Amino acid sequence: MKHDWILDVLTDLRTFARENDLLTLAAQLDDTQMVAAIEIASINERSAVDAIEQDNSDRHDLFTLGQGKRII
Q1: 3 DSSP assignment
Q2: Where would I find the H helices in the chain?
Q3: What is the rounded distance in angstroms from the CA atom of residue 45 to the CA atom of residue 6?
Q4: Considering the entire predicted model, what is its pTM?
């Protein structure tokens, strides 16, 4: 999502390296792109879990709000 642009940059760099016979650099960039993809996926997964936990917390707050005693 907001970090995906870096994968495009790494692809462009890797392509440049291969086209200019910088094979070791191209291999490094392959590894770097994989690391970036894994980290981005991890960030996205954490964000989804955080959103679910916040939703559950909000629901709990609404439930406990209704548990208060009413004084007339």
Answers
A1: S
A2: 5-19, 23-65
A3: 18
A4: 0.60
